[in-house]
Amino acid sequence: ILNVEQSPQSLHVQEGDSTNFTCSFPSSNFYALHWYRWETAKSPEALFVMTLNGDEKKKGRISATLNTKEGYSYLYIKGSQPEDSATYLCASDNQAGTALIFGKGTTLSVSS
Amino acid sequence: KAGVTQTPRYLIKTRGQQVTLSCSPISGHRSVSWYQQTPGQGLQFLFEYFSETQRNKGNFPGRFSGRQFSNSRSEMNVSTLELGDSALYLCASSLGDSTNVARELFFGEGSRLTVL
After folding, report:
1. Banded model confidence at residue A1, pLDDT cuts 50, 70, 90
2. How do residues A46-55 score in pLDDT, each as one tens digit?
3. What count of Cα atoms within 13 Å lies in the side-chain half-sphere of residue A109?
4. Which residues 26-85 in chain B show a CB within 8 A of chain A?
5. Fewer CB within 10 A of the terminal residue: chain A, N end or C end?
6. Which of B43, B101, B106 sits opposite A102 (nearest CB)?
7. Tens digit of pLDDT for each residue in A21-50?
């Protein structure tokens, strides 16, 4: 059974701060690691899908890294803005054809 | 391009009743997955349908069932509702084949079920 863990559970930062969160996942049978952003009253939206060890992806001020050997991924937000306030979910895909397993998420609140 | 549509958005039922939730995926997507979210829990996987066949199933009791139609629309049904079934039920569609890009999920806004 997969167990995806995210930390911290929540955090509060000031506008302009940079922050990062962690997703840990079983490294055996790894296939892909997904990051989603879920804003209040909206649907979760995909940020990144990562497959290669050492991969780094970037979208604007948000970036993510992946270590498949040790089973963790970091999500970084540079210069947080109030509109970054959301819950960030990671999900592990352990092999083609099986379901994505989600962590409980990190809820970020950015104050202006 | 229309997104994933879930109906109804909100509903209230009483214990013992049953409920059916509907999900219309993005056009061209053949896979539909259902997740349950309750306070303090992550998204718990219910089941996935691909081309009208259940491809994966989570660890939920048999009261939870689903199906997929030939147009890829999916329904899930919960029978004999319990208070603990109160949750947000999210549907997500994807292209459904085995490439990792194809596995990216596109979510609906969810159906919030309250069981009294």
Report:
1. very low
2. 999 999 999 9
3. 5
4. 33, 35, 40-43, 45, 48, 55-56, 58
5. N
6. B43
7. 999 998 888 889 999 999 999 999 999 999
pLDDT at residue B99 greater than cutoff 70: no
CB of A102 less than 8 A from some CB of B: yes
Cα angle A87, A91, A93 (rounded to 5 degrees) comes to 170
Q: Report the Cα–Cα distance between both ends of chain A, in Å, rounded.
A: 41
Q: Which residues pair with A81 in a beta bridge?
A: none
Residues sharing a CB contact under 8 Å with residue B113, sequence separation 6 or more, in sequence order? B11, B12, B13, B19, B21, B78, B85, B86, B87, B88, B89
Residues from chain A that touch B48, judged by Cβ atoms under 8 A, are 99
Question: Is 70 exceeded by the pLDDT of residue B1?
Answer: no
Question: Which residues on chain A are in Cβ contact (under 8 Å) with B5?
Answer: none
CB contact under 8 A, B42 and A104: yes
Give contacts of A91 with chain B, Cβ < 8 Å.
43, 105
Question: Chain A: residue nearest B48 by CA?
Answer: A99
Using DSSP's 3-state secondary structure scheme, residue A71 falls into coil
The residue assigned the tokens 């890009």 is B101
Helix (H/G/I), strand (E/B), else coil: A84: helix
